Amino acid sequence: AKQAGKGTFAFFEPRIGEVVQQRVRLEEALRNAILRDELSIAIQSQYSPSGRLSGGEVLVRWLVGPDGVPVSPGAFIPVAESSGLIKPLTLLVLDKALAVIRQMMQRGIHIPLSVNFSTDLFRDEELINGVLELLAEAGVPAELLVLEITESLFIDTHSDVLDNMGRLMEAGLKFSLDDFGTGYSNLAYLKKMHLSELKIDKSFVDNLPGDDDNRAIVRSILSIARQLKLRVVAEGVETHSQADFLAAHGCDLLQGFLLHKPEPADSWLIELENCFSE
Ligand code: C2E
Ligand code: CA
Ligand code: CA
Ligand code: CA
């Protein structure tokens, strides 16, 4: 490098270096956590407006050290996605989710669980095979597994992405469009992609029912979904007035801290058993 160029960057170098180093450290720690099976899952229940437990979202958890300090998925999922670690992470989460579904089935409870599935994974045929193998090994009907995907999947629809998605669909898996409304909503895709479900993003739920814009957005999402025969889940429901508005306008399922906070799979299963034996 030229002397002058080097000088120009000197001011920024330490900070950029720090950020890069931090990221490398996070990636290393995550790699080890995956290898040592230190990731776990939490489940957040989803309810019908009448209060019936109808499903749950599986959320990855990473607790570090003897005190179990949580690292936010918002911080490590992007690192996993850009480093290739998302593949083993997803298989791990899926394996744990299927184990939970199997335990539910043994108790006679047939409720689907939703697992978050990063967009890039649909390019990976090996991973798709892995998903189908895990399902077969677990002896879980594919109908009990929902994959939550985001609209970014539809920006550049390579044919291999569509093929792989098609293979999972043929196997019986269902797809839910997560964070709906925040991305590249091309309504034509909604029909083409054979989705089963839309999830209204928390940002639209937040100011209900006071905010005029959000009220209009949520009502039109619900009306589109009804016409396309898609189930709608509202995420981030925190207040009774939000829940009441959503229920009054035909939202199928509610998910949020008002109803249930994500909890470790073990205690979720125990709670589930109690709720079904009452
Ligand atoms: P998401 O898919 O939108 O998941 C919902 C997030 O909102 C979760 O945060 C959940 O704990 C939180 N949440 C649920 N109800 C409420 C509420 O009423 N109020 C508020 N303020 N928050 C609520 P979490 O667990 O931190 O996950 C963050 C994001 O990380 C997820 O957003 C998802 O995009 C990603 N993620 C989590 N687990 C996985 C995974 O296993 N695989 C992949 N690829 N991504 C994951
Ligand atoms: Ca999700
Ligand atoms: Ca979401
Ligand atoms: Ca969201």
Automatic annotation (TrEMBL):
The residues covered by the EAL domain are 23-276
Instruction: Write down what this protein is called.
Output: EAL domain-containing protein
Shown stretch of the complete protein: 420 to 697 of 711
